[in-house]
Amino acid sequence: MPAIRLASEGMSQEPTPRDVDAFLDSTLVGDDPALSAALEASAAAGLPSIAVSAQQGKFLCLLAAAMGARRILEIGTLGGYSTIWLARGAGPEGRVVTLEYEPKHAEVARANLQRAGVADRVEVIVGAALDTLPSVTGGPFDLVFVDADKENNLAYVEWAVRLTRPGSIIVVDNVIRDGQILAPAPDDRLMQAVRQTIELMGKHPQLDTAALQTVGAKNWDGFAMALVK
């Protein structure tokens, strides 16, 4: 393909998905001090750099806003970056319940949510999600975002179905994993679980599911989105 001139660098070069993400972020998200601070605080605390991208976060926000989601469940908080996006989509009258296994992550997330001005609409529950899900209240949820330990995704999807209603949406992140989903190694429990989750969502009688591949700053991955029937 022809070389494309990148105005920000003043030189011609082959664009990369990361370059495109940078352009999209600056054009469609812009400067957002609360989100930037959340990422910086998470990095300073030593949290892994595995939060959703800005574009993925805004997609979740717009999805929640478009469907009028007022009750949102998130499985996997990390530093609260995606939680901020979900809380914004839910609006001032909405409520987000987010589950986090690591107490340190939850502490960082609470500070980030407070700084972003959405702490009053978010409940952070600490503990293994499979232990805390049975006692989660506030449902049925309009939107569920699953982005936690992949080995338990099958159980998380079943819980998501149980805690939602017909018309709700379930989004599961990281379902492509650089294409490893096609032929996961027999001893790779994580990738086996990712593939089994897609297979479950494809045949589940209460779900109608599609999956989208994504590229960008987070490399080659994707998410599955299911409508609860």
TrEMBL record:
Q: Which UniProt keywords apply?
A: Methyltransferase, S-adenosyl-L-methionine, Transferase
State the Gene Ontology terms under molecular function: O-methyltransferase activity; S-adenosylmethionine-dependent methyltransferase activity
* GO BP: methylation
Q: Which residues form a coiled coil?
A: none
| CDD domains, sorted | AdoMet_MTases (cd02440)
Keyword Oxidoreductase tagged: no
Q: Which domain of life is it from?
A: Bacteria
Q: This chain belongs to which protein, by name?
A: O-methyltransferase
Organism encoding this protein: Mycobacterium noviomagense
